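DM from R.C. (forwarded with permission)

"hey, sorry to bug you on a friday — could you get me a structure for this? deadline for the figure draft is monday and I only need the backbone to look sensible"
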Amino acid sequence: MLTSSLRSVCLTVALLGAAPSISPIAAQTTDAGTLLVRIHDRDVGTESFTVTTTANGITISAHMVFTGSRPAREFTASLDRASGEEFAFQLDARGPAGGGQTYAVQERNRLTVRRVARGVEQATELPGGAEVIMLADSVFTPYVQAAVLATEGGRALTAVLLPDARRVAFTASRSASADGSTIRLTGGVVAEIQLGDRGELLRISLPGSGTEAVRRRD
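My reply, with the result:
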């Protein structure tokens, strides 16, 4: 079920009224670690993450720190998706130019995205659905949503890209091997995600921007 703090903040800000009814979640698996982020082979920061998957949904928390500026730019993302059609997402940004928050709540087939920055608020209503995921250009772990939904034959999905809440269509395809699985995203989102043999996140590659996030070995 949605955590009480995230649900109350997102539902209040998005003005969606009562919280959705969500069934109990099943046994869960959790993956936690740190991604080393590079752009064109240059180290730009680190992202700590926790991903919990269940038979019914997924929760993600990620904290990205870009170390190239002083003070450093920081982004914190939280996703709680307890069913295919209902989720809450929050993205907080802090940096030299200020900060802001983005809240997104999907209830059945309606997605509300609200952005708050420097006293200015803007809300957007978008079509929702079980094939809709949230992505941002400042954090990387949320790409795991696509890995969870990917199929061997390819599944058509829609990403809502933050910060501008732009919708793009793409396909998520999964191929398995003895060492794990590789998920390739093609179309409006181009990326490659590698998971280990236990389903743990190993690498996210975004070839268009030359960005690679690689798991740090403990």
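R.C.: lifesaver. The longest strand covers residues 42-53.
me: no worries. Residues 1-26 have pLDDT under 50 and may be disordered.
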